[in-house]
Amino acid sequence: MKVVYLLLLFFLNFAIINAEKENVKIFVANQLNQNVIWGTIKGDHFYPRDTVIFFNDFVRFHMPNNINYGVCRLVLGQSAIAKVMNEPPQQLDFIFNGEDIVIETDFNAPLDSAKDIESLENQIWFEFLRKEKIYQEQVKELVMQINHFQKNDDTYYTLAKRTEIIGKYNKLQKDRDKLIASVTQNYPNLYASKLIKIKQEPFLNGNLSEQEREEVQKKHYFDNIDFSDESLMNSSAYTDKVFKYFMLYAQKGLSKEKKVDEFKKAIDVILYKTSQNPNVSAFIVDYLMRGFEKLGLDNLQTHISDFYMIPHGCSGDNNTLERRLAFQQMKKGDKIPDFTLDDWDGEQFKLYQSDTDYKLILFWETSCPMCKKILPPLKNWYFNKNIDLEVFAISIDEDKKAWKTSISKNDYPWINLNEANKWDGKVATAYNLYATPTMFLLDGENRILAKPIDFNGLLEAVLGLE
Protein backbone atom coordinates (compact mmCIF):
# COMPACT_ATOMS: atom_id res chain seq x y z
CA MET A 1 0.00 0.00 0.00
CA LYS A 2 2.85 2.33 0.88
CA VAL A 3 4.53 1.59 -2.47
CA VAL A 4 1.31 2.41 -4.37
CA TYR A 5 0.98 5.68 -2.42
CA LEU A 6 4.56 6.68 -3.22
CA LEU A 7 4.05 5.86 -6.91
CA LEU A 8 0.87 7.94 -7.02
CA LEU A 9 2.65 10.81 -5.31
CA PHE A 10 5.53 10.59 -7.79
CA PHE A 11 3.26 10.63 -10.85
CA LEU A 12 1.17 13.47 -9.37
CA ASN A 13 4.27 15.60 -8.82
CA PHE A 14 5.50 14.71 -12.32
CA ALA A 15 2.18 15.78 -13.85
CA ILE A 16 2.16 19.06 -11.92
CA ILE A 17 5.72 19.89 -12.95
CA ASN A 18 4.95 19.19 -16.60
CA ALA A 19 1.62 21.04 -16.47
CA GLU A 20 3.38 24.12 -15.13
CA LYS A 21 6.30 23.93 -17.54
CA GLU A 22 6.78 27.29 -19.26
CA ASN A 23 8.31 27.03 -22.73
CA VAL A 24 8.82 30.78 -23.24
CA LYS A 25 10.92 32.81 -20.84
CA ILE A 26 12.17 36.29 -21.73
CA PHE A 27 14.51 38.41 -19.63
CA VAL A 28 14.26 42.15 -20.35
CA ALA A 29 16.76 44.61 -18.91
CA ASN A 30 15.50 48.14 -18.17
CA GLN A 31 11.86 47.12 -18.62
CA LEU A 32 9.55 50.04 -17.75
CA ASN A 33 6.09 48.46 -17.96
CA GLN A 34 4.68 45.79 -15.68
CA ASN A 35 2.24 44.42 -18.26
CA VAL A 36 3.62 42.90 -21.44
CA ILE A 37 1.48 41.71 -24.36
CA TRP A 38 2.33 38.74 -26.53
CA GLY A 39 0.57 37.59 -29.66
CA THR A 40 0.88 36.00 -33.08
CA ILE A 41 1.60 37.44 -36.53
CA LYS A 42 -0.40 36.57 -39.63
CA GLY A 43 0.44 38.72 -42.63
CA ASP A 44 -0.08 42.36 -41.71
CA HIS A 45 -2.14 41.41 -38.64
CA PHE A 46 -1.00 41.20 -35.03
CA TYR A 47 -3.33 39.11 -32.87
CA PRO A 48 -2.85 39.75 -29.13
CA ARG A 49 -3.08 36.46 -27.24
CA ASP A 50 -2.50 37.39 -23.62
CA THR A 51 -1.13 39.96 -21.20
CA VAL A 52 1.63 38.67 -18.94
CA ILE A 53 3.12 40.24 -15.84
CA PHE A 54 6.74 41.36 -15.84
CA PHE A 55 8.28 40.06 -12.61
CA ASN A 56 11.88 39.79 -11.39
CA ASP A 57 13.29 41.03 -14.70
CA PHE A 58 11.48 38.46 -16.86
CA VAL A 59 8.16 37.27 -18.26
CA ARG A 60 7.21 33.70 -18.96
CA PHE A 61 4.26 31.95 -20.51
CA HIS A 62 3.22 28.66 -22.04
CA MET A 63 2.26 28.44 -25.70
CA PRO A 64 -1.31 27.11 -26.13
CA ASN A 65 -1.68 23.92 -28.12
CA ASN A 66 -3.59 25.70 -30.90
CA ILE A 67 -0.73 28.10 -31.74
CA ASN A 68 0.70 27.41 -35.19
CA TYR A 69 4.44 27.46 -35.66
CA GLY A 70 5.46 30.88 -36.94
CA VAL A 71 6.36 34.37 -35.76
CA CYS A 72 5.16 35.72 -32.42
CA ARG A 73 5.51 39.23 -31.05
CA LEU A 74 6.26 40.54 -27.57
CA VAL A 75 5.03 44.11 -27.08
CA LEU A 76 7.07 45.63 -24.25
CA GLY A 77 5.33 49.00 -24.16
CA GLN A 78 6.25 52.60 -24.93
CA SER A 79 9.29 54.41 -23.64
CA ALA A 80 8.77 57.76 -21.90
CA ILE A 81 9.78 59.63 -25.06
CA ALA A 82 7.55 57.45 -27.24
CA LYS A 83 4.54 58.33 -25.09
CA VAL A 84 5.19 62.04 -25.53
CA MET A 85 5.89 61.74 -29.26
CA ASN A 86 3.07 59.21 -29.81
CA GLU A 87 5.51 56.70 -31.26
CA PRO A 88 5.04 52.91 -31.47
CA PRO A 89 5.90 50.68 -28.51
CA GLN A 90 9.09 48.67 -28.18
CA GLN A 91 8.60 45.13 -29.44
CA LEU A 92 10.43 41.96 -30.34
CA ASP A 93 9.40 39.38 -32.93
CA PHE A 94 10.57 35.81 -32.36
CA ILE A 95 10.03 32.41 -33.93
CA PHE A 96 8.05 29.69 -32.19
CA ASN A 97 8.43 26.16 -33.59
CA GLY A 98 7.93 24.02 -30.49
CA GLU A 99 11.40 24.61 -29.05
CA ASP A 100 11.84 26.01 -25.57
CA ILE A 101 12.60 29.70 -25.81
CA VAL A 102 14.80 31.62 -23.38
CA ILE A 103 15.56 35.11 -24.66
CA GLU A 104 17.65 37.86 -23.11
CA THR A 105 17.13 41.40 -24.38
CA ASP A 106 17.00 45.07 -23.41
CA PHE A 107 13.94 47.30 -23.47
CA ASN A 108 15.91 50.13 -25.05
CA ALA A 109 17.12 48.00 -27.99
CA PRO A 110 15.06 44.78 -28.19
CA LEU A 111 16.47 43.42 -31.45
CA ASP A 112 20.04 44.68 -31.17
CA SER A 113 20.48 43.09 -27.75
CA ALA A 114 18.35 39.95 -28.27
CA LYS A 115 19.88 36.52 -27.85
CA ASP A 116 18.16 33.18 -27.45
CA ILE A 117 19.91 30.71 -25.19
CA GLU A 118 17.75 27.69 -26.13
CA SER A 119 16.38 28.13 -29.66
CA LEU A 120 18.65 27.73 -32.68
CA GLU A 121 15.85 29.21 -34.81
CA ASN A 122 15.95 32.51 -32.99
CA GLN A 123 19.73 32.61 -32.69
CA ILE A 124 19.97 32.51 -36.48
CA TRP A 125 16.98 34.81 -37.00
CA PHE A 126 18.13 37.55 -34.63
CA GLU A 127 21.64 37.51 -36.06
CA PHE A 128 20.34 37.80 -39.62
CA LEU A 129 17.97 40.67 -38.73
CA ARG A 130 20.81 42.60 -37.13
CA LYS A 131 22.98 42.16 -40.21
CA GLU A 132 20.03 43.02 -42.45
CA LYS A 133 19.46 46.27 -40.57
CA ILE A 134 23.08 47.31 -41.13
CA TYR A 135 22.92 46.19 -44.76
CA GLN A 136 19.81 48.25 -45.52
CA GLU A 137 21.35 51.37 -43.95
CA GLN A 138 24.57 50.97 -45.94
CA VAL A 139 22.78 50.25 -49.23
CA LYS A 140 20.46 53.22 -48.77
CA GLU A 141 23.42 55.57 -48.34
CA LEU A 142 25.31 54.13 -51.35
CA VAL A 143 22.22 54.28 -53.60
CA MET A 144 21.70 57.94 -52.71
CA GLN A 145 25.29 58.68 -53.70
CA ILE A 146 25.10 56.68 -56.94
CA ASN A 147 21.84 58.35 -57.98
CA HIS A 148 23.33 61.75 -57.15
CA PHE A 149 26.50 61.50 -59.21
CA GLN A 150 24.69 59.83 -62.11
CA LYS A 151 22.39 62.85 -62.39
CA ASN A 152 24.72 65.67 -61.37
CA ASP A 153 28.14 66.88 -62.46
CA ASP A 154 29.60 66.95 -58.93
CA THR A 155 33.39 67.34 -58.94
CA TYR A 156 33.62 65.70 -55.51
CA TYR A 157 32.77 62.37 -57.12
CA THR A 158 35.85 61.71 -59.23
CA LEU A 159 35.95 58.67 -61.49
CA ALA A 160 37.94 56.78 -58.85
CA LYS A 161 35.43 57.78 -56.16
CA ARG A 162 32.49 56.68 -58.28
CA THR A 163 34.15 53.36 -59.08
CA GLU A 164 34.81 52.80 -55.37
CA ILE A 165 31.19 53.52 -54.39
CA ILE A 166 29.75 51.30 -57.11
CA GLY A 167 32.20 48.55 -56.10
CA LYS A 168 31.05 48.74 -52.47
CA TYR A 169 27.40 48.67 -53.52
CA ASN A 170 27.83 45.63 -55.75
CA LYS A 171 29.92 43.79 -53.13
CA LEU A 172 27.33 44.42 -50.41
CA GLN A 173 24.65 42.77 -52.51
CA LYS A 174 26.83 39.76 -53.33
CA ASP A 175 27.84 39.33 -49.68
CA ARG A 176 24.19 39.38 -48.66
CA ASP A 177 23.35 36.76 -51.30
CA LYS A 178 26.16 34.56 -49.95
CA LEU A 179 24.85 34.95 -46.39
CA ILE A 180 21.32 33.94 -47.39
CA ALA A 181 22.63 30.99 -49.40
CA SER A 182 24.84 29.87 -46.51
CA VAL A 183 22.04 29.94 -43.94
CA THR A 184 19.48 28.20 -46.14
CA GLN A 185 21.95 25.50 -47.20
CA ASN A 186 23.28 24.80 -43.71
CA TYR A 187 19.85 24.86 -42.03
CA PRO A 188 17.36 23.86 -44.78
CA ASN A 189 14.64 22.66 -42.39
CA LEU A 190 14.51 25.67 -40.08
CA TYR A 191 11.60 28.10 -40.20
CA ALA A 192 14.16 30.88 -39.91
CA SER A 193 15.70 29.72 -43.19
CA LYS A 194 12.33 30.08 -44.91
CA LEU A 195 11.96 33.63 -43.60
CA ILE A 196 15.49 34.50 -44.68
CA LYS A 197 15.26 32.88 -48.12
CA ILE A 198 12.21 34.89 -49.11
CA LYS A 199 14.23 38.06 -48.55
CA GLN A 200 16.32 37.31 -51.64
CA GLU A 201 16.43 40.19 -54.10
CA PRO A 202 17.78 40.54 -57.66
CA PHE A 203 21.30 41.84 -58.13
CA LEU A 204 21.25 45.48 -59.23
CA ASN A 205 24.51 46.52 -60.87
CA GLY A 206 25.53 49.98 -59.67
CA ASN A 207 26.77 50.82 -63.18
CA LEU A 208 23.17 50.82 -64.40
CA SER A 209 21.09 53.98 -64.27
CA GLU A 210 18.42 54.40 -61.61
CA GLN A 211 15.69 53.64 -64.14
CA GLU A 212 17.52 50.57 -65.45
CA ARG A 213 17.96 49.25 -61.91
CA GLU A 214 14.25 49.76 -61.24
CA GLU A 215 13.34 47.80 -64.37
CA VAL A 216 15.66 44.93 -63.39
CA GLN A 217 14.13 44.86 -59.94
CA LYS A 218 10.57 44.79 -61.29
CA LYS A 219 11.41 42.04 -63.78
CA HIS A 220 13.36 39.74 -61.46
CA TYR A 221 11.99 40.60 -58.00
CA PHE A 222 10.16 37.29 -57.57
CA ASP A 223 12.81 35.07 -59.20
CA ASN A 224 13.35 31.88 -57.15
CA ILE A 225 10.77 32.94 -54.54
CA ASP A 226 8.50 30.10 -53.40
CA PHE A 227 4.93 31.09 -52.55
CA SER A 228 3.66 27.55 -51.95
CA ASP A 229 4.53 27.25 -48.24
CA GLU A 230 1.40 27.93 -46.15
CA SER A 231 3.40 28.05 -42.91
CA LEU A 232 4.83 31.43 -43.97
CA MET A 233 1.33 32.88 -43.69
CA ASN A 234 2.01 32.74 -39.94
CA SER A 235 4.43 35.63 -40.35
CA SER A 236 4.66 38.87 -42.28
CA ALA A 237 7.03 37.35 -44.87
CA TYR A 238 4.58 37.16 -47.77
CA THR A 239 2.83 40.47 -47.15
CA ASP A 240 6.14 42.32 -46.61
CA LYS A 241 7.44 40.90 -49.89
CA VAL A 242 4.31 41.90 -51.78
CA PHE A 243 4.19 45.39 -50.25
CA LYS A 244 7.79 46.12 -51.18
CA TYR A 245 7.19 45.05 -54.77
CA PHE A 246 3.98 47.09 -55.00
CA MET A 247 5.85 50.21 -53.89
CA LEU A 248 8.23 49.86 -56.84
CA TYR A 249 5.32 51.11 -58.93
CA ALA A 250 4.54 54.12 -56.71
CA GLN A 251 6.33 56.59 -58.96
CA LYS A 252 6.26 60.29 -58.17
CA GLY A 253 4.90 62.82 -60.64
CA LEU A 254 2.32 60.54 -62.26
CA SER A 255 -1.32 61.51 -62.62
CA LYS A 256 -3.86 59.59 -60.58
CA GLU A 257 -4.96 57.62 -63.65
CA LYS A 258 -1.37 56.73 -64.53
CA LYS A 259 -0.67 55.61 -60.96
CA VAL A 260 -3.70 53.33 -61.06
CA ASP A 261 -2.49 51.82 -64.35
CA GLU A 262 0.96 51.21 -62.83
CA PHE A 263 -0.55 49.63 -59.72
CA LYS A 264 -2.65 47.32 -61.91
CA LYS A 265 0.56 46.12 -63.54
CA ALA A 266 1.99 45.38 -60.09
CA ILE A 267 -1.18 43.51 -59.09
CA ASP A 268 -1.04 41.36 -62.23
CA VAL A 269 2.56 40.36 -61.54
CA ILE A 270 1.95 39.75 -57.83
CA LEU A 271 -1.11 37.55 -58.32
CA TYR A 272 0.56 35.59 -61.11
CA LYS A 273 3.71 34.96 -59.09
CA THR A 274 1.79 34.04 -55.92
CA SER A 275 -0.64 31.63 -57.60
CA GLN A 276 1.31 28.44 -56.83
CA ASN A 277 -0.88 27.55 -53.84
CA PRO A 278 -4.61 28.45 -53.80
CA ASN A 279 -4.61 29.13 -50.06
CA VAL A 280 -1.58 31.41 -50.26
CA SER A 281 -3.09 33.09 -53.32
CA ALA A 282 -6.34 33.76 -51.45
CA PHE A 283 -4.29 35.06 -48.50
CA ILE A 284 -2.52 37.58 -50.77
CA VAL A 285 -5.77 38.60 -52.48
CA ASP A 286 -7.37 39.24 -49.10
CA TYR A 287 -4.36 41.33 -48.02
CA LEU A 288 -4.51 43.46 -51.16
CA MET A 289 -8.29 43.90 -51.06
CA ARG A 290 -8.23 45.03 -47.43
CA GLY A 291 -5.36 47.41 -48.13
CA PHE A 292 -7.09 48.97 -51.12
CA GLU A 293 -10.31 49.28 -49.12
CA LYS A 294 -8.51 51.22 -46.39
CA LEU A 295 -6.91 53.50 -49.00
CA GLY A 296 -10.17 54.02 -50.86
CA LEU A 297 -8.74 52.54 -54.08
CA ASP A 298 -11.99 50.99 -55.29
CA ASN A 299 -10.78 50.75 -58.89
CA LEU A 300 -7.96 48.44 -57.81
CA GLN A 301 -10.42 46.31 -55.83
CA THR A 302 -12.53 46.10 -58.97
CA HIS A 303 -9.50 45.04 -61.01
CA ILE A 304 -8.81 42.15 -58.63
CA SER A 305 -12.49 41.23 -58.45
CA ASP A 306 -12.90 41.25 -62.23
CA PHE A 307 -9.87 39.17 -63.10
CA TYR A 308 -8.89 37.13 -60.04
CA MET A 309 -11.75 36.51 -57.62
CA ILE A 310 -14.57 35.10 -59.73
CA PRO A 311 -12.85 31.77 -60.55
CA HIS A 312 -12.89 30.99 -56.82
CA GLY A 313 -16.71 30.72 -56.87
CA CYS A 314 -19.82 30.41 -59.01
CA SER A 315 -21.48 33.41 -60.59
CA GLY A 316 -24.67 34.06 -62.51
CA ASP A 317 -26.10 36.40 -65.13
CA ASN A 318 -26.12 39.23 -62.59
CA ASN A 319 -22.31 39.23 -62.46
CA THR A 320 -22.16 42.82 -63.65
CA LEU A 321 -19.62 45.52 -62.92
CA GLU A 322 -22.37 47.57 -61.26
CA ARG A 323 -23.21 44.83 -58.78
CA ARG A 324 -19.56 44.09 -58.01
CA LEU A 325 -18.93 47.77 -57.35
CA ALA A 326 -22.01 47.90 -55.13
CA PHE A 327 -20.74 44.83 -53.24
CA GLN A 328 -17.36 46.49 -52.73
CA GLN A 329 -19.09 49.60 -51.37
CA MET A 330 -20.38 47.49 -48.47
CA LYS A 331 -17.55 48.45 -46.15
CA LYS A 332 -16.34 47.36 -42.74
CA GLY A 333 -18.50 49.11 -40.12
CA ASP A 334 -21.56 49.40 -42.39
CA LYS A 335 -24.81 48.09 -40.97
CA ILE A 336 -26.12 45.19 -43.02
CA PRO A 337 -29.74 45.18 -44.26
CA ASP A 338 -32.25 43.16 -42.26
CA PHE A 339 -34.11 40.34 -43.98
CA THR A 340 -36.93 37.87 -43.41
CA LEU A 341 -36.63 34.38 -44.90
CA ASP A 342 -38.15 30.93 -44.40
CA ASP A 343 -36.12 28.39 -42.48
CA TRP A 344 -36.06 24.59 -42.82
CA ASP A 345 -39.48 24.23 -41.17
CA GLY A 346 -41.08 27.01 -43.19
CA GLU A 347 -41.02 29.39 -40.23
CA GLN A 348 -40.06 33.00 -40.90
CA PHE A 349 -36.74 34.18 -39.53
CA LYS A 350 -35.51 37.77 -39.12
CA LEU A 351 -31.78 38.50 -38.94
CA TYR A 352 -32.11 41.37 -36.47
CA GLN A 353 -33.91 39.13 -33.98
CA SER A 354 -30.75 37.12 -33.42
CA ASP A 355 -28.87 38.30 -30.31
CA THR A 356 -25.55 36.43 -30.67
CA ASP A 357 -22.29 38.36 -30.25
CA TYR A 358 -21.28 37.60 -33.83
CA LYS A 359 -23.01 36.38 -36.98
CA LEU A 360 -21.84 34.81 -40.21
CA ILE A 361 -24.07 35.12 -43.26
CA LEU A 362 -23.18 32.58 -45.95
CA PHE A 363 -24.79 32.62 -49.39
CA TRP A 364 -24.48 29.26 -51.12
CA GLU A 365 -26.00 26.91 -53.69
CA THR A 366 -26.15 23.11 -53.79
CA SER A 367 -24.69 22.99 -57.33
CA CYS A 368 -21.71 25.25 -56.51
CA PRO A 369 -18.40 23.28 -56.28
CA MET A 370 -16.71 25.91 -54.11
CA CYS A 371 -19.67 25.85 -51.71
CA LYS A 372 -19.28 22.09 -51.37
CA LYS A 373 -15.62 22.66 -50.59
CA ILE A 374 -16.14 25.29 -47.87
CA LEU A 375 -19.09 23.72 -46.02
CA PRO A 376 -17.36 20.63 -44.47
CA PRO A 377 -14.52 22.58 -42.77
CA LEU A 378 -17.02 25.24 -41.73
CA LYS A 379 -19.15 22.55 -40.09
CA ASN A 380 -16.16 21.11 -38.24
CA TRP A 381 -15.12 24.59 -37.07
CA TYR A 382 -18.70 25.38 -35.99
CA PHE A 383 -18.70 22.48 -33.53
CA ASN A 384 -15.33 23.51 -32.04
CA LYS A 385 -15.54 27.33 -32.09
CA ASN A 386 -14.71 29.34 -28.97
CA ILE A 387 -16.94 32.27 -29.80
CA ASP A 388 -20.63 33.17 -29.52
CA LEU A 389 -21.32 33.13 -33.24
CA GLU A 390 -24.23 31.83 -35.28
CA VAL A 391 -24.13 30.91 -38.94
CA PHE A 392 -27.02 31.88 -41.21
CA ALA A 393 -26.65 29.83 -44.41
CA ILE A 394 -28.84 31.29 -47.16
CA SER A 395 -29.36 28.96 -50.10
CA ILE A 396 -30.34 30.59 -53.39
CA ASP A 397 -31.54 27.26 -54.82
CA GLU A 398 -34.78 27.44 -56.77
CA ASP A 399 -35.25 23.72 -56.15
CA LYS A 400 -36.18 23.57 -52.46
CA LYS A 401 -36.18 19.77 -52.54
CA ALA A 402 -32.51 19.73 -53.56
CA TRP A 403 -31.75 22.24 -50.78
CA LYS A 404 -33.51 20.17 -48.10
CA THR A 405 -31.92 16.95 -49.34
CA SER A 406 -28.46 18.51 -49.07
CA ILE A 407 -29.10 19.76 -45.53
CA SER A 408 -30.52 16.41 -44.46
CA LYS A 409 -27.64 14.48 -46.00
CA ASN A 410 -24.89 16.66 -44.56
CA ASP A 411 -26.62 17.55 -41.28
CA TYR A 412 -25.68 21.22 -41.32
CA PRO A 413 -26.13 22.36 -37.69
CA TRP A 414 -26.68 26.11 -38.15
CA ILE A 415 -29.71 28.17 -39.17
CA ASN A 416 -30.59 27.13 -42.72
CA LEU A 417 -32.59 29.59 -44.85
CA ASN A 418 -33.70 29.65 -48.46
CA GLU A 419 -34.46 32.35 -51.00
CA ALA A 420 -35.59 30.51 -54.11
CA ASN A 421 -35.04 33.29 -56.61
CA LYS A 422 -31.34 32.71 -57.25
CA TRP A 423 -29.48 35.96 -57.97
CA ASP A 424 -32.64 38.08 -58.30
CA GLY A 425 -34.04 37.49 -54.81
CA LYS A 426 -34.70 40.47 -52.54
CA VAL A 427 -31.95 39.51 -50.09
CA ALA A 428 -29.48 38.60 -52.84
CA THR A 429 -30.13 41.97 -54.46
CA ALA A 430 -29.90 43.89 -51.18
CA TYR A 431 -26.57 42.23 -50.46
CA ASN A 432 -25.32 42.76 -54.04
CA LEU A 433 -24.69 39.04 -54.41
CA TYR A 434 -22.84 38.14 -57.60
CA ALA A 435 -21.07 34.89 -56.69
CA THR A 436 -21.23 31.97 -54.29
CA PRO A 437 -19.98 31.30 -51.76
CA THR A 438 -20.18 34.83 -50.32
CA MET A 439 -19.72 35.55 -46.62
CA PHE A 440 -20.38 38.49 -44.31
CA LEU A 441 -18.97 38.39 -40.78
CA LEU A 442 -21.02 40.69 -38.52
CA ASP A 443 -20.90 41.93 -34.94
CA GLY A 444 -23.86 41.87 -32.58
CA GLU A 445 -25.10 45.18 -33.99
CA ASN A 446 -25.20 43.70 -37.51
CA ARG A 447 -22.24 45.75 -38.70
CA ILE A 448 -19.72 44.29 -41.13
CA LEU A 449 -16.47 43.08 -39.58
CA ALA A 450 -15.14 41.30 -42.66
CA LYS A 451 -16.12 39.80 -46.01
CA PRO A 452 -13.93 36.67 -46.16
CA ILE A 453 -13.44 35.21 -49.63
CA ASP A 454 -12.71 31.67 -48.41
CA PHE A 455 -12.54 29.52 -45.26
CA ASN A 456 -8.99 30.57 -44.40
CA GLY A 457 -10.03 34.19 -44.68
CA LEU A 458 -12.84 33.48 -42.23
CA LEU A 459 -10.46 31.85 -39.74
CA GLU A 460 -8.17 34.86 -39.96
CA ALA A 461 -11.05 37.29 -39.39
CA VAL A 462 -12.42 35.30 -36.43
CA LEU A 463 -9.00 34.78 -34.81
CA GLY A 464 -8.94 38.30 -33.44
CA LEU A 465 -12.41 37.87 -31.91
CA GLU A 466 -11.82 34.67 -29.91
From TrEMBL:
**Could you tell me which Pfam families the record lists for this protein?**
AhpC-TSA
- According to the record, the segments passing through the membrane are none
Domain (Thioredoxin) ranges: 330-466
* Domain of life of the native organism: Bacteria
Q: Which PANTHER family does the protein's record reference?
A: PROTEIN DIPZ (PTHR42852:SF13), THIOL:DISULFIDE INTERCHANGE PROTEIN DSBE (PTHR42852)
Protein name stated in the entry: Thiol-disulfide oxidoreductase ResA
